[in-house]
Design goal:
- The protein is an all-alpha fold and 433 residues long.
- It has 19 helices and four strands.
- The strands form two sheets. Strands 1-4 form a two-stranded parallel ribbon. Strands 2-3 form a two-stranded antiparallel ribbon.
- The longest helix is centred in the C-terminal third of the chain and has 32 residues.
Length: 433
């Protein structure tokens, strides 16, 4: 690894961690709705935010990001940016904490690049390897997250309209899975994200019903909706976000990182054209997911809608140009957010919708992570996992200082994996199979 690669991966780790520390951007879509509850609304503590970040990301880092990266010489971006989410939420919300976040983020990026195999080996030497099982914690999140618009509609407008929204979203998912893969005239294969299209369909209905809501009086026409306020926060940090997007593109150009397992495998085999097309198609599918969560939370992603990965792949070996174009791409993305917010800002019903969206997001994530934690625990200890997670979930509610509900499932799965290893060493546990 040359000095340029070290500087780029270190800078990316530092920038992403500092953006998380300040509540500007996080990579984990499941963590994004939680960030405003600390940074904007103050309804949860720093400790609760840190616990939630660890819960929703750590299992994915060691159970998905790192293992996928091991088979190639390129890091899956999840192994880098999910950990910078964790570091950024754990470091203090102060100038010293911000500096510490940058140092630790840079150290993680550089250390991960140098010592990936060593990190995984630590987990692999455990007598009972539960890495694969932990990867199941996050499986329900993306699919389940797509249902939140229907739940928000139900909270605001009642069961019938909520059920209609969920039904249309389910139809969109089915049609995308069946017909979302097609070949362009040039022969390129494009696959739309079923989850992204599902979320888009739900968002359309959610906004349609919100637009029809009448205000209590005409005096409220000039009120700025919660969406516009949070988009303004993103635009205020446009330069920092854009520079981070440029670093993502530059790191991809240097074949240090990849945005998804498909493009990672293609890049590792030298098929950069195909990898670029795969990354481009992924970006198209993720537009509604990233835009919608950014608009309603005021928190962006350090990789934006992921088009920066495609830019980096197509500009293989040209990190400077990739950095410039990646920065411009992020500027364009964030500029489009403002237009979307202004369009929503004209309708008084949108203001009421904000609270319902936050509630729906949290409820969906709580259930998805609980299910994921239960599935992982059952794989770690068949016949015990469901008992373990459900018991901890209910006991947690009686604790004096309980974990947030979203953290229970993943933390329970990790704890069970550690306990199983201790019992195995004490000759009190025999792995199934």
């Amino acid at each position: 690894m040359d000095i340029t690669q070290i500087i780029v991966i270190g800078a990316l780790g530092a920038m992403a961690t500092m953006l998380t520390n300040k509540g500007i951007a996080v990579f984990n879509d499941g963590l994004r709705p939680v960030m405003p509850e600390y940074h904007h609304d103050g309804v949860i503590s720093k400790k609760e935010l840190a616990a939630t970040s660890f819960a929703v990301s750590f299992g994915l880092v060691i159970g998905f990001g790192i293992p996928v990266s091991i088979g190639a010489s390129i890091l899956l971006i999840h192994s880098l940016l999910l950990m910078t989410d964790i570091i950024g939420t754990w470091t203090p919300n102060s100038k010293l904490g911000l500096a510490l976040a940058g140092i630790l983020g840079a150290a993680w990026g550089i250390g991960l690049t140098f010592g990936l195999q060593f990190i995984v080996n630590i987990f692999e030497i455990l007598p009972v390897n539960f890495l694969d099982a932990l990867g199941m914690v996050g499986n329900p999140i993306v699919v389940a997250f797509s249902v939140f618009p229907g739940i928000a509609v139900a909270y605001q407008h009642g069961f019938k309209k909520g059920a209609l929204t969920v039904g249309v979203a389910a139809l969109a998912m089915f049609l995308t899975k069946q017909f979302g893969s097609f070949t362009l005239p040039g022969g390129a294969q494009v696959t739309l994200s079923a989850e992204g299209m599902t979320l888009l369909a739900g968002m359309i209905f959610m906004l349609y019903f919100a637009i029809k809501v009448k205000g209590d009086s005409t005096d409220n026409q000039n009120l700025v909706s919660i969406f516009a306020e949070r988009v303004k926060k993103i635009k205020k940090n446009m330069i920092l976000l854009s520079l981070t997007g440029g670093l993502v593109a530059a790191a991809t150009s240097l074949t240090l990182i990849a945005g998804d397992p498909i493009s990672l495998s293609l890049m590792d085999s030298g098929q950069f054209g195909e990898a670029g097309l795969a990354a481009l198609a992924r970006g198209i599918g993720f537009i509604p997911l990233v835009f919608s969560t950014a608009i309603v939370t005021g928190v962006y992603s350090p990789a934006g809608t992921t088009f920066v990965f495609a830019i980096g792949i197509f500009l293989q070996g040209n990190p400077i140009l990739a950095f410039v174009l990646g920065t411009v791409a992020m500027l364009v993305e964030i500029s489009l957010l403002d237009g979307a917010a202004k369009g929503l800002d004209r309708f008084p019903g949108v203001r009421e919708l904000g609270e319902h969206i936050r509630t729906a997001m949290n409820r969906v994530l709580e259930i998805a992570l609980l299910v994921g934690g239960a599935l992982a625990s059952e794989q770690i200890a068949p016949g015990i996992g469901f008992f373990w997670v459900i018991g901890i979930y209910l006991l947690n509610r009686t604790a004096k200082k309980p974990l947030v509900d979203m953290a229970v499932g993943p933390v329970a799965a990790i704890a069970l994996g550690i306990i199983v290893n201790i019992l195995y060493v004490l000759s009190l546990w025999t792995p199934a199979g």
